[in-house]
Amino acid sequence: MPAEIGHVALLLALAAACLQSVLPLVGAQRGEARLMAFARPAALAQFVLVALAFALLTWCYVVSDFSVANVFQNSHTAKPMLYKVTGVWGNHEGSLLLWVLILALFGAAVAAFGRNLPPPLAARALAVQAMIAAAFLAFMAFTSNPFERLDPVPAEGRDLNPILQDPGLAFHPPFLYLGYVGLSIVFSFAVAALVEGRVDAAWARWVRPWALAAWASLTLGIALGSWWAYYELGWGGWWYWDPVENASFMPWLVGAALLHSAIVAEKRDALKSWTILLAILAFGLSLIGTFLVRSGVLTSVHSFASDPARGAFILAILAVAIGGSLALYAWRAPTLKPGGAFAPMSREGGLVLNNLLLSTACATVFVGTLYPLFLEGLGGAKVSVGAPFFNATFVPLMIPLVAAMAVGPFLAWKRADARAALRRVALPAAAGALAAIACALAAPPAPALAYVGAALAAMLAAATIGEFAARAGTLRRAIGLPRAAWGTAIAHLGMAVTVAGVVASAAWQSESIGLMRPGESVSIAGWQVTFRGTELARGANYTARRGLFEARRGEGSALRLSPAKRFYPSTGSTTTEAAIHGSILGDLYVTIADPAEAGPQGANARFLFEAPTDTAWAVRITHNPLVAWIWAGAGLMALGGAVSLTDRRLRVGAPTRRLRTARA
């Protein structure tokens, strides 16, 4: 019965979304208040219905109701309760339901908290949001029903992919979807403004908090995914330019550009047309990511489906949403007034440079990610675009971007004094030079770009702290500063911390890969790591062969590290579990692979767990300097976004500009 109720709830939500897509638009066009007001209760009802369906699917997982095909394919009675719940979104149908739930959540949030919005704009925005929801609810109803029944009922489920049975899965997808799908409401506001034919400072003020919430969530989601891949997949790194990873990174880049562009649109009434275009592209890239994950065109640990029919349905949604909005933009954009003028050397000019660099960086990632797919689709040979391409194209764009972030806050609005700005940035530049010199003296030799990156990270941190201190003056004044100023400073400082972590972990990483027998030792980055053998261990639904390692630095006490190979009987698969000793200065990272006697096909379950005690095992030991700074910096960026959201100025409309009578 819960499955049937959930299915009916989704169909009712589809009906509510269809009505919400039409009636408010008609009301806004005719100026009928009752039809425009219909958008708010319809959005709230749609959210309640989708939330009910999601809760019922979760209940089916909790009680292991294998009569539901989705539960049978992705759960198991021996699975811990945490992974039963997170398994709800560890598959195509369940994750799509989470996608629609968050889509409805943002619509309901606008309906509940957007009382200060002009009724026509609110009605049009909620109608566009409902169109997106209706498309994906129809997608679920016709191709991806999460409540499909099985008859006869299986006695046991097939279990969830073992690498997804990790606490990281409980947080990474929800935050990622909050960012992905959250950009839909910005898209809806952009399309509503184009339909209305008016974009002004008030519109930019209304859009900024939603863009900020989506971007901060996406930042946290990407960071959690990177951290999960780091410790769960045994890669030993933080980013591998996986196509699906890139699909989440592209909306993040455009979203960051959108946030800065909206500031110019709000404060200077400029870049309005460009801001609208960024809002469309940000959500368009989110839809492209959804297509890549669910179409079967990619084989990735992130992929949910391999059904071309489903991919064609999403491709149709993508074509209508992006194509229709860009056609509307091409029609309406020329009618938008350009707004206030400003000099190239100004705060606005710095933000324009920021936008150009972020957009170009996104374009390089887009080309590197999709070019192999286009080439293969046209009948060409299969090509692989990996880290060398992205390092050669993306990294050089980040150097001027970080430098602009350091210099930009010192520039005045409209027209800046270049000499004064250079004088103010001299101290941060000196801090960057000292950081590069310190790295050259204290660390092993590295490529020149490593020292440039270290200098830029230190320069950005010093400039952020210095500009905020100069603006605050005293502690009392600092407490009284707008929360958006605090949030900006925290986010920029987070970027500096992340850049430092990326540079250090990439340039000064140490690694040892080889066979080790019990009693053998390896020296790496000042650590002496000794392999003591292996032991068997058991979990709730797996058996593991755990490696026993001791690590010692100098005369200090020994640390115990226990990487493992896990075997899951329900799926017949094995996973690698890394052992990590983390500190603020770096991580000692150890993984254990197959025994030497396993042969080229790898260890089967029997040999893996019955190996002789003197067996040599393939071991990978890595030292990653400052790698934790990457995720700490991302956390600071998300925190900065959250702090900015508490600024009251982002919850009220922008003041109307008064026309000044020109003097004779």
Explain how this protein is built:
With about 675 residues, this protein is α+β, with helices and mostly antiparallel strands. Among the domains are: about 1-160, Four Helix Bundle (Hemerythrin (Met), subunit A); about 510-625, Tick-borne Encephalitis virus Glycoprotein, domain 1 (Sandwich). The protein is built from 20 helices and 10 strands. It has helices spanning about 1-30, 35, 40-60, 70-75, 80-85, 90-115, 120-145, 170-195, 200-230, 245-270, 270-295, 310-330, 345-375, 385-405, 420-440, 450-470, 475-480, 485-505, 605-610, 630-645, and strands at about 510-515, 520-525, 525-540, 545-555, 560, 565-570, 575, 580-585, 585-595, 615-625. Strands 2, 3, 4, 5, 6 and 7 form a 6-stranded antiparallel β-sheet that branches. It has a 4-stranded antiparallel β-sheet with strand order 1-10-9-8, covered by helices on one side. Residues about 655-664 have low confidence and may be disordered.
Give the SSE layout:
Blueprint: H1 2-30, H2 33-37, H3 39-62, H4 69-74, H5 81-86, H6 92-113, H7 119-143, H8 172-196, H9 201-232, H10 243-268, H11 272-294, H12 308-332, H13 347-377, H14 387-407, H15 418-442, H16 448-472, H17 475-480, H18 483-507, E1 510-516, E2 521-524, E3 527-538, E4 543-553, E5 559-561, E6 564-568, E7 573-577, E8 579-583, E9 586-595, H19 605-609, E10 617-625, H20 628-645
Antiparallel strand pairs: 1-10, 2-3, 3-4, 4-5, 4-6, 6-7, 8-9, 9-10
Helix pairs in contact: 1-3, 1-7, 3-6, 6-7, 6-8, 7-8, 7-12, 8-9, 8-10, 8-11, 9-10, 9-20, 10-11, 10-13, 11-12, 13-14, 14-16, 15-16, 16-18, 18-20
